[in-house]
Design brief:
The structure holds 2 protein chains of 2 kinds. Chain A contains 23 helices and 2 strands. By secondary structure, chain A is an all-alpha fold. In chain A, helix 9 runs antiparallel to helix 14 and helix 10 crosses helix 13. The chains are: A mainly alpha, B mainly alpha.
């Protein structure tokens, strides 16, 4: 009988399956635009040193994943009769609706990216590992489509779990702009952005931090599902460090630095729009422990810095302004206000803020009242005066030509968030921030062709040129009118504020929401 | 105006509205149908539906090799309506594969009875494994790369999902072969197991026709031709040769352990063949002009693939201690191949 062997003995033999092609050109089989080898200065054979820290075989993969799916789906079926999540209230449902609308099909986009590495990455061990990454992402797509599917019978907004990215809703446009940017890259560029900047940076936030909120709220099914997802992310995200190690060895980190700076900022912007409002506004206030800003500091800032410092990379050049933004939570508060004001464009039901919300927000973000309170007062006042429609926008807004989110915080009295602009080929492009402008200026040909919703509107691509026309374009037309966002607390919540004076009641000049 | 009625809770759905077929969707449909949003047109008519400049490399590739494939149809509906006949979800796939791999673990535990006793390093059975069996992990890797490519470039998320599983099937083979080579290396360190297979794959004449057609398929970037050339031609022929008939050969040579491991792999091969025939049937049904494309692609890759199989004559007739008549093997491979095509308007080239 042959001797027994351990995984460590044979793993390298299994994964080192590079060979020299001789019947077709190496370049034809590994085209530079798909692999990325030309964009880096790694000598021949250099990528063969590629090695991930935590290894897993097919045998182990099947066993572990089978068990993990088993736990998640058994919790899920145990919850079937529980009335979850509808019994947890519309606020928590907003968190779920937002999550399920934005996440599962992006996971599917990551199947494509991981499969690109599994085919075109410059080393067989990397390709081998990436295949499990593709499998993981397929799992996440499936899991996060199956769970909300059982909710569409109760609430039509969950239909957007599969629909959002097939529409031209602004949230779809913004998220696709980022993920298509990742996807439409060579394997090395793409993996640096997806596995290093995005997965080691931000999936913790969406899957672990949010799972902690879910556990507090009592949404056992969601907490179980997304924390299980994060265990996969943590494994396949290792690709990023393995790539950087090789680049570092050959002193070839400039491009990686650029890509990490670019994608980290882009992810921050998108997550501020998506996860920030969920954590600070939609999770019921009594179940909120940490704020989005606190989660950011703990999960992203500290951990990402640690991660960056463990490689030869440096922290992004915009770090100081990024930290300031994180602390004041500005982008996220602005987006929460925007979601509210433009709620018919979103498949969630964002509520007006209550007194407890405001106390909590002021405590977590000192100065919140001064900066944002008045906008909510005006909504409340309109509501008391039976002017609900005044709390809903009837116009469009200047959008950033890079991140596709609102380009200006529209606060003419303050210095922060001035509109940035840049000329390219006789056209003026607008940006929400210096980093977004910097990204565009580095590769204008890549981005200039894309039209934001506002540009489509102004160009006449959206007809009729009205807000209804825009809603139709976004997939929220007449047929889907019942899926449009509403304030689930309206109109009563306006009454809560009849005699209310904000804590810092100094007179502020009128600001406009748009 | 009161918003208390919660209109989203009044008018609801029975299933996702992206589902446009008359049947009630199953879990498989919910998980796999229409999940890739970059297929087809952008709102302004540009193909594919990606938010970066259409001059960038990836959009160009999609334009040329996916939406621009020789296999034609209306995007996305024509291709989205293909569904895996086994309705394999990720959950089911893992469950199934966990069982298959546990079976292999059990076989390993029974190795004492199942494994051929090899004490002598000049046993020709060792040379057979080194030269005719263990280099197989390289073409498995090649086939994984192609299946990964098809995951990226398939015209529907349903086809793409089937290809993701197929790519992982290849990986489990690759790993078991490496484990075997390592065992033999430990027992017979002087024989060069684990070290020589790459050179054999790159230079030994028995492997060259296979390496040639595999490398050619690696650069067949049109998704349709890549799929047909791989799944409807090369892979089924190889799986019959290396799984079905090698299993018999191993059995004859008292190497029952690996005979059973190969049989276990064949369960995956069987699924891939079913997927191949089903996708081919589907594309011909959606657009009859695809029939000629499928046939032409079969004609293009069959001769080289058959040559790749034929090169293994020595593996059956002269290398192992107990031999098999290769003409019978070949006839059986052809018979199986014809059976796979039986329900398609496509035939094996003469």
């Amino acid at each position: 009988m042959l001797p027994n062997v351990r995984r460590e003995d044979w793993y390298q033999t299994a994964t080192n399956t590079n060979w020299d092609l001789s019947y077709v050109d190496e370049e034809e089989a590994f085209p530079p635009e798909m692999t990325g080898q030309d964009a880096y200065d790694i000598p021949e054979g250099g990528w063969e040193a590629w090695e991930e820290t935590y290894k897993q075989t097919a045998r182990e993969y099947y066993e572990t994943q089978h068990e993990k799916d088993g736990s998640v789906y058994s919790v899920s079926s145990a919850m079937e009769q529980s009335g979850l999540p509808h019994s947890l209230g519309m606020g928590w449902e907003d968190v779920l609706k937002f999550h399920f609308a934005s996440v599962p099909l992006l996971e599917r986009a990551a199947v494509t990216s991981e499969s690109q590495y599994a085919r075109f990455a410059p080393d067989s061990a990397w390709r081998h590992m990436a295949q499990f990454g593709a499998m993981d992402e397929l799992r996440h797509t499936e899991l996060q489509l199956r769970i909300p599917h059982s909710f569409v019978k109760e609430d039509a907004q969950y239909d957007w779990s599969k629909k959002l990215y097939h529409t031209e809703d602004w949230a779809s446009v913004a998220a696709r702009h980022l993920f298509d940017d990742f996807k439409a890259s060579n394997a090395i560029d793409s993996a640096l952005q997806v596995t290093f900047a995005f997965e080691t940076g931000f999936t913790n936030m969406q899957f672990l931090a949010l799972a902690s909120d879910a556990a507090d709220v009592g949404d056992i099914e969601f907490a179980e599902a997304i924390s299980s997802i994060q265990t996969d992310e943590a494994r396949h995200a290792q690709q990023g460090n393995a790539i950087i190690e090789i680049l570092d060895e050959y002193d070839d980190l400039d491009r990686a630095q650029y890509l990490v700076d670019k994608s980290f900022w882009r992810c921050y912007k998108l997550f501020s729009a998506l996860t920030g409002p969920s954590m600070d506004y939609y999770t019921p206030v009594e179940d909120r422990e940490m704020s989005w800003g606190e989660f950011m500091e703990e999960w992203i800032v500290d951990q990402f810095l640690e991660n960056i410092e463990s490689t030869g990379l440096e922290k992004p050049w915009y770090w100081e302004q990024f930290i300031e933004l994180v602390r004041e939570g500005g982008t996220s508060h602005y987006m929460a206000g925007g979601h509210y004001h433009w709620r018919p464009t979103l498949p969630i039901a964002p509520p007006g803020v209550t007194e407890e919300d405001r106390e909590w927000l002021e405590e977590k973000y000192p100065g919140w009242e001064d900066r944002w309170g008045e906008k909510w007062d005006r909504h409340a006042e309109a509501m008391r005066n039976d002017n609900l429609e005044k709390t809903v926008a009837d116009d469009l807004i200047v959008l950033c030509d890079l991140c596709q989110l609102p380009a200006i915080h529209a606060d003419p009295d303050r210095e922060n968030n001035r509109l940035h602009s840049h000329e390219h080929d006789g056209e003026t492009y607008y940006f929400c921030s210096e980093p977004c402008q910097w990204i565009f200026e580095n590769e204008p040909e890549r981005y200039a062709e894309h039209k934001s919703i506002l540009r489509r509107f102004l160009a006449g691509d959206i007809q009729p040129q009205t807000l209804e026309g825009a809603l139709e374009h976004m997939g929220m037309g007449e047929e889907n009118v019942h899926e449009r966002g509403i304030d689930f607390r309206a109109p009563e919540w306006g009454d809560d504020w009849a005699d209310w004076n904000p804590p810092s009641a100094e007179p502020t000049s009128a600001a406009s929401d748009d | 105006m009161s918003e208390k009625d919660y209109p989203m809770k009044q008018e609801t759905y029975r299933t996702y509205s992206t589902w446009n077929q008359r049947r009630v969707p199953t879990t498989y449909d919910i998980a796999a149908h229409r999940t890739n949003y970059d297929i087809g047109e952008r709102y302004d008519g540009t193909v594919p539906r990606l938010a970066v400049s259409s001059d960038e490399a990836l959009p160009q590739w999609y334009q040329k090799y996916r939406e621009g494939s020789a296999i034609t149809g209306e995007y996305p509906d024509d291709f989205d309506s293909w569904r895996d006949p086994r309705e394999l979800t990720y959950e089911k796939y893992n469950e199934l594969m966990d069982k298959r791999e546990s079976t292999i673990e059990t076989l390993y535990e029974q190795a004492e009875v199942l494994e051929r006793g090899t004490e002598r390093s000049d046993d020709p059975w060792l040379d057979f494994q080194e030269r005719a069996f263990l280099p197989l992990r390289y073409p498995c890797h090649g086939l994984q790369m192609i299946a990964s490519y098809l995951t990226m470039f398939a015209p529907s998320s349903t086809i793409s999902t089937a290809m993701t599983f197929q790519a992982t099937d290849e990986i489990r083979r690759q790993e078991r072969l490496a484990r075997r080579a390592t065992q033999l290396h430990k027992e017979f360190p002087e024989k060069g197991f684990t070290e020589n297979e790459r050179e054999i794959w790159e230079e030994d004449e028995m492997w060259q026709p296979l390496r040639k057609v595999l490398e050619e398929l690696l650069v067949e970037y049109d998704w349709g031709k890549s799929f047909v050339g791989t799944n409807l031609v090369l892979k089924p022929l190889l799986d019959e040769l290396f799984l079905a008939h090698y299993s018999e050969l191993f059995d004859k040579n008292d190497s029952n352990l690996y005979a059973q491991v190969l049989d276990n792999f064949y369960l995956d091969a069987d699924r891939s063949q079913e997927v191949a025939a089903s996708v081919a049937d589907h594309v011909i049904e959606i657009d009859e002009s695809n029939e000629a494309v499928v046939q032409e692609t079969v004609d293009e890759y069959y001769p080289a693939s058959e040559e790749a199989v034929e090169a293994f004559r020595p593996a059956f007739e002269s290398m192992p201690p107990e031999t098999m008549a290769f003409d019978d093997v070949l006839a059986d491979i052809r018979r199986k191949y014809d059976a796979m095509l039986a329900d398609l308007p496509v035939s094996r080239p003469a």
